[in-house]
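S1.2 Input.
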Amino acid sequence: MISSFTQRRRFSDLSEQEVLALAISSEEDDAQIYRSYAQMLRAEYPGSAAVFDDMAVEEDGHRRRLIEQHRIRFGDVIPLIRREHVAGYYARRPIWLTKNLPLETIRSEAAGMEAQAARFYLLAAAHTSDAATRKLLGDLAAAEAGHEKTADRLEAKHLPGDVREQEDEGARRQFILTWVQPGLAGLMDGSVSTLAPIFATAFATQNSHTTLLVGMAAAVGAGISMGFTEAAHDDGVLSGRGSPIKRGLASGIMTAVGGLGHALPYLLPQFWTATIIAMVVVFFELWAIAWIQNRYMETPFLRAALQVVVGGALVFAAGALIGGG
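S1.3 Output.
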């Protein structure tokens, strides 16, 4: 790893031929990324997929112009130099990471790609003394900088208002089904169901360490159980709720977070201080649940808050009575 890093070239040390070669390989990579975006989105968002198809075609045009300029100045053999060979050169997010990104985030990724490319071409133009090459690089910088207008034009072509709204609504619905619903169920289960064992142990023992151990066991155990249950009971094919692994992770992690929130204050050895902090944490957990229900599930906030607070209060009371008895 260290050897690979130290062998990277500085951009200022590249020859004009190497700068052109770097631009060519970068355009090839960006076109492939746009085609990968299109392939990922084609089934659910055909309009957005068509936009990325056209953006890939534009990158192909840039690459051909760069290759032609290289052929005129340096011949047909293009040096092999890529982004990872140049220290400090901008990098692209690995394509497999984008598979989990929302549609709007992918669009933002593409906008960021164009801005980075525009800055590169400006630097590259300043790096060359050949008038024709400098003009080409400057034109490409302007083209990349102007891709926001190009994207708008392509979206107007492939994503008229109603299509864009349908795709955005579909993306939001899928995000809710895959992440929000399982995560909310987990947070509610972790926050509410662990109240009884944690506070029963707390009031029965009045010992922070014992309460912490019980709370962590309850939170982690509930997280594992909820995660596996969510992943196993629905593969998402017929329900359209998305990947069972994603849903299992969302449910399991949020369940554990909900329970650990009011267990971790018992890291403090002062029992009553830890208990008061844990109660405050419970208040914020219940408020967060009500906010998520209102924000994503369109449940009126007062009704959501009343449901969560009443349920949480009953479970807390049960734990306190059992522990205090």
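S1.4 Remarks. The first strand starts at residue 9 and ends at 10.
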